[in-house]
TrEMBL record:
Organism classification: Bacteria, Pseudomonadati, Bacteroidota, Flavobacteriia, Flavobacteriales
Superkingdom of source: Bacteria
Keywords: Membrane, Transmembrane, Transmembrane helix
Species of origin: Kaistella yananensis
Transmembrane segment boundaries: 12-34
Name used for this protein in its record: Uncharacterized protein
């Protein structure tokens, strides 16, 4: 019998997913340590339009 061949994702895909996960974790660590750092980021709140 022939052994089962498994599909493996490409190495670049694994590295990309790992980097994205590490960036998300790093963001939350920065958010916990420096909460004032992200106060100036836009949050998508609706602003009145002045003409």
């Amino acid at each position: 019998m022939e052994p089962n061949k498994r599909n493996k994702p490409a190495t670049l895909i694994i590295i990309a997913v790992a980097v994205i996960a590490m960036l998300i974790i790093f963001y939350f660590i920065l958010l916990a340590i420096f909460p004032d750092l992200f106060q100036t980021l836009p949050t998508g709140e609706v602003q009145p339009v002045t003409n």
